[in-house]
Design a protein that fits this description.
This protein is an all-alpha fold and 72 residues long. It has two helices and no strands. The longest helix is centred in the first third of the chain and has 43 residues. The protein starts with a helix and ends with a helix.
């Protein structure tokens, strides 16, 4: 009887260890994928593209200001 209980406990520990290992691997893979995605985003948003956006917004705001002055 005691031998059966000990064997059952061993099996449950092994299952818990395997589940924990799988959970940790999934967490690591998810973190690795997030880091890779972040690196791709960082490469795409270089100084040239953000500079263009800034200039476009500046021109748009000045055009809006000029239109406001002409219409009022």
């Amino acid at each position: 009887m005691e031998k059966g209980i000990a064997e059952y406990k061993k099996q449950q520990k092994a299952k818990a260890r395997a589940a924990d290992k799988a959970r940790k691997q999934a967490r690591r893979a998810k973190a690795r994928d997030a880091e890779e995605a972040e690196e791709v985003v960082m490469e795409g948003a270089g100084p040239a593209s953000s500079g263009r956006v800034a200039w476009a917004l500046l021109v748009l705001s000045w055009a809006g200001f000029a239109a406001y002055l002409l219409l009022s």
